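Exercise 3.2. Students should predict the tertiary structure of the chain below and write it as structure tokens, then compare their answer with the key that follows.

Predict this chain's 3D structure.
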Amino acid sequence: MRSALGTAALGLAGLGLGLAAGSLPAAAASGMSLELSKGRLALALGLGLWTRALASGFAGALVDRFGARRALRDASAGAAAAAAGLGALFLGGGEGGMFVAVAILHAVVCYFAAFAGPAAARLNAARLEPGLRGRHAGLYGALAFPAEFLALPVGLWLGARLPAPAVVFLPAMAALLALAAARLGPEEARDEGPGAGLGELRVLAGRAYVLIPAALAGCAGAVRWGLLGWSAQFLSEVHQIRPGGPLFLPALASAAAGACLGPALGGLLSDKAFGARRAPAAFVLFAIMAAALTGLGRALEPATAVAFLGAACGAAFGVHALLSGAAAMDAGGRRSAGAVSGLLDGVHHAAGGLAIPLVGALVDRGGWGSWTAVLLPFSLFGAAASLALAWLRAEARDPSL
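Answer key:
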């Protein structure tokens, strides 16, 4: 019970940092005086996503080198300061010249958010045996990952009910929540010792039991961000599910429920059904993902599409939690779990950063019928690679246990 509470605190820290990093669209859409066009907003969001992708491996190495709890506290404090600066810009207003400052501050918040997952993996690797890591990775993901769905609707809802100063500083308050949760997180293990940092990251990046999960993380990232980036427009144009309509909230709830339940299901499946092996559980989730994407593309009824969207999100988020959480703990152990988690997280977000514009360009050419057809090969390749990983038994043994 105590170990679960420690992971829950880490999950709340990840939730707070995720809300801070995902709140730029809400601030821009809530009637703030700083106007951003759709093109500039997309550019700022893309910069934040790529910042997180490129910074994750570096952040994980810093977590291993200087300690996870300290890194998580410092990152939360830094995110709070950057988010407060972003709020001040929106409150003060300005024209296009302020866009550069907005984009930079948003990227800084996303950089600090990259520390959350590696810190959780490092702390849990040091205190949990392999048979418990899957469910704890799932618990972390169930708490932290829904931030991507909650930031925009919660920000818009609060923006309609609170004065502007309260709304623009909500991201900073979310980061302060992360700071408080980080202080409640588990202590570093006494025998954990310092990690090797960037040098160890270079060595790990060339090992098969890290490279294959990295390929799986890329497949999951392409599907996850391909869904997040285009699902709202797909539902609006194909099924007429728009804000204010009767199925809009159920669609949002379905996707958010998938983001919450998918990681928990993947972690329990890995620990309970497959004896702490991650590859078979990843195969099951990729198979569910493929089936859900097929159903989503062929659904004729809006309610059916909403249900398949939730299933697809659950599988994509579940694979992400399983890989960047449990698999990173197994591969890196107490010494380098943060670096492996950051590496997998970086590949995941980089694949998402490539998938969003690629899917958009292909949909422009082929229509919405090509949307899920573009994402489906990633899930099929992920399922095949998971089978190969399970067959070859390429998962690393944790030498520290």
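Discussion points: The mean pLDDT is 82. Residues 9 and 255 are 23 Å apart (CA to CA).
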